Amino acid sequence: MAVHTRTRAMHAATESVDPGFRLISVEIKDLTYDLAAGHASMEASPTERDKSDSRVDFLQTKMLNGLFLTPSWVIARRKYDGGKLVRINGQHTSNGIVGLGEQWDPAGHKVMVEIYEVDSPEAEALVFRQIDARQSGRTPLDVCGAYIGLHADLKALDDKKLIKKAIEAMVWQEKTVEEIKGLKQSDSRYETVEDPNVRAFCVWLHGFLAMKPKEMMGLTILGAIYSTWKKNPDDAAEFWRLVPTAANDGETQEPALVLGGWLSDEYNEPSDDVGKNNLYQGSIFAWNQHRAKKQITAVKYAIRNGRFLETAD
Fold it and tell me: Whole-angstrom Cα distance, residue 309 to residue 303?
């Protein structure tokens, strides 16, 4: 007898309960066009998520690029409805295969087909929830960690989150500031650790920013740090080490300390006219004044029509 769903949580950690569904069969089948067409046309459970054309396109791209792995299709056999079979998932992969037709040959590919007997509509929904549960989903940090693990110089570092932020800032800087075209985006950004220069920046940043002052951890500020590193890593390290030590007393004129006070103020009480790109511009202004061995009393952060007025010297 199935346990009522409203009482399931109180039993979950202490005793085994009947969820209202049970595995009937698992088969590894050859993935063919006809099998995919049959699955795509099968009646869907109302628990199945809505079809997403972008998801189908994503999977078709994987297929055409040789990146498609063995899918798992789940079917429910309704004990409460005369043993009727309904599709719980797999509409995107099956429709992707059907949509490609002769463009993609599934020969050599397999599919795992699971059939579960369900006692009720509630149990049917519960089966769906076990497929790619949100808590099991790959996060960007998981993806980044996979690439970090391939390189001993990054794997040896303690703070994987800082490495992830560094990579994202580098890509942002090259796309937005340098306006480089065709850069990898989304999870593919983390593939850039294959470049020794990317790893060198990550190691350098980790070496002096391990304390992670909150006012310096924004994407565009890390992007500014990357811009200065590209100009002179040693000078950049000296400059940025001073930034979080700012006394914020309104008297110092050392560019790094003035910048530190400004970033701290903007972090704690953001100004209406200071956006993320302004934080980048202000950081670069202070860096350029430092490089010119000049003193400053305030940070200039204006941008014009979304474009930066200063680049790192």
Answer: 6
Element (H, E) at 170: helix 160-172
Residues 293-306: tens digit of each pLDDT:
999 999 999 998 88
| Degrees to nearest 5, angle at CA 200 with 194 and 204 | 145
Residue 13 has a pLDDT of 54
Task: List the beta bridge partners of residue 116.
Answer: 23, 76
Q: Is residue 221 part of a domain?
A: no
Which segments of the chain have a pLDDT < 50? 1-12
Beta-strand pair 110-118/84-87: unpaired
Pull the structure tokens for residue 13.
Answer: 């950690």
Q: pLDDT at position 11, please?
A: 47
| Nearest by Cα to 205 from 252, 170, 251 | 170
- Per the domain annotation, does 120 fall within a domain? yes
What pLDDT is attached to residue 309?
82
- Report the distance separating Cα 256 and Cα 225, nearest Å: 12
- Number of domain units in the chain: 3
SS3 state at 102? helix
Residue ranges with strand state E in the chain: 21-30, 72-78, 84-87, 110-118, 303-304, 307-308
- How big is the chain, counted in residues? 313
As a whole number of angstroms, the distance between CA 149 and CA 155 comes to: 5
pLDDT of residue 137: 75
pLDDT digits (tens, 9 = 90+) for 74-84: 999 999 999 99
- For 115, phi then psi, to 5°, come to -120, 125
Same domain, 10 and 131: yes
